[in-house]
Design goal:
194 residues; Peptide Deformylase; 2 domains; 3 helices; globular; binds nickel (II) ion
Length: 194
């Protein structure tokens, strides 16, 4: 396994549409996924898309750990470490949630980003099996963030209020300000980078 260099905002690889994978079960994709997992864990992230490691292919990995959600949270809030090849999603219903996001390609920065609160996603595992899951809350958020990377979209482009973009060190101050003006209701605890 190899630790891979992570592309940072401004590099065009993050702005391109990634190409579909022809054979999800190929050894080449298996090796890429192994290196992506090692790289994401080393960077203490919760999601990584192949374009972030300069591979313009439709491959993402993510996790939605149980400890991020409250007690009695539905199972759809969580996911173990998951690899999805050629992923797609569709929203369920019209609910939009505001929440904090970071990105390993935009280190040190967090923003409040609107996302669909409930989705169904599909793709392929590295053994070629189809995967289909329902996702809610942070689980839905991380999947939408990672699939955006495959279409060349970084989270600031999804923000509807760029005044809610912050250095991590200033986030406490921003959240106080947001609470005061009641603009960020529903925003969750600070996220890890994706
Ligand atoms: Ni990201």
């Amino acid at each position: 396994m190899t630790l891979l260099k992570i592309a940072r905002m401004g590099h065009p690889v993050l702005l391109r549409s990634a190409r579909p994978v022809v054979d999800p079960a190929s050894a080449e994709i298996g090796a890429l996924v192994g290196n992506m997992i090692e790289t994401m864990e080393d960077a203490a992230g919760v999601g990584l898309a192949a374009p972030q490691v300069y591979e313009s292919r439709r491959v993402i990995i993510f996790t939605a750990p149980e400890e991020r959600a409250g007690e009695d949270a539905p199972e759809t809030d969580f996911a173990p470490l998951t690899t999805l090849i050629n992923p797609e999603f569709e929203p369920i219903g019209d609910d939009i949630a505001m929440g904090l996001e970071g990105c390993l390609s935009i280190p040190g920065i967090t923003g409040i980003v609107p996302r669909h609160a409930r989705i169904i996603y599909r793709g392929y595992a590295p053994d070629g099996r189809p995967v289909e899951r329902e996702a809610t809350n942070f689980h839905a958020r991380v999947v939408q963030h990672e699939i955006d990377h495959l279409d060349g979209i970084l989270f600031p482009s999804r923000m509807t209020d760029l005044s809610c973009l912050s250095f991590n060190e200033e986030l406490g101050h921003l959240m106080e300000y947001v609470a005061e003006r009641r603009a960020g209701s529903g925003a969750r605890q600070a996220g890890q980078e994706q």
